[in-house]
Amino acid sequence: MIADELRTRVQDGTFGAGRLLPSESELGSEFAASRVTIRRALETLRDDGLVDARQGFGWFVAAAPLQQSLGQLATIEAQLSDSGIKPERRILEFAFEKATVSVNKILDADQVLRVKRLNLADGEPFALVTVWCRADLGQHLSRADVERSPFYELLDVPLKGATQTIGADAASADEAALLKVPIGSPVLRCERTTQSVEGKTVLVSRHVFPAHRTEFVVDLPFVDQSIAPSGLRLVD
Prior knowledge:
The structure is a single chain. By secondary structure, the chain is α+β, with helices and mostly antiparallel strands. It has 2 domains: 2-61, Winged helix-like DNA-binding domain superfamily/Winged helix DNA-binding domain (Arc Repressor Mutant, subunit A, Orthogonal Bundle), CATH 1.10.10.10; 66-217, Chorismate lyase-like (Chorismate lyase, 3-Layer(aba) Sandwich), CATH 3.40.1410.10. The protein is built from 9 helices and 10 strands. It has helices spanning 2-11, 24-31, 35-47, 76-82, 101-107, 135-138, 143-148, 151-154, 173-179; strands spanning 51-54, 58-61, 66-69, 87-98, 111-121, 124-134, 159-170, 186-196, 201-210, 214-217. The strands form 3 sheets. It has a 6-stranded antiparallel beta sheet with strand order 4-5-6-9-8-7. Strands 1-2 form a two-stranded antiparallel ribbon. A hairpin with a 4-residue loop joins β8 and β9. α1 packs across α3 (35-47) and α2 crosses α3. It is elongated, with a radius of gyration of 21 Å.
């Protein structure tokens, strides 16, 4: 009976794709059942492919990972739309301010526009993004503009490409609350710098993705052996 009730919640969208389920303890209190019974109900749903679990993370609604191709400069929203997934962005912070030392070093700008947003896929959070733009390039932008469209479509600057660095990390308390994952759960942390055709860095962005929902895909065409760097590096 518990499995049937949880199955209904998954199928009617009460628990959306990728969403973390209440803990076994919380479900036990709701259904007045032991954790052993709750776990057997969840395992039944896992056998049906409806939920999954990870050690130290908990149970979540099973869904195909949100894939992002690293082969071209494109927004994740466009890639999600092409896959039939509804993207949404919620602006959390919008401010023109003095650049931090690290951002100033990259953008070579004292004043920047900083935008922090939460990205959602079919109503569920999948990315926490902070973008810094040179103030002179973003001075015409409003909060409504950046909530409606990505910077790549808003800036009147021809773009050449971007460099993106991806690493593993653990979710902070703030990130966990916004992404609806446990504190300390695995996330993918990405930093991207975007350049104009003139070779100047015009955007710096930092992205945090819950690891259970995200995959990065890279096509590797066969080429002759080379001693050129592969793009992988070890970090301390």
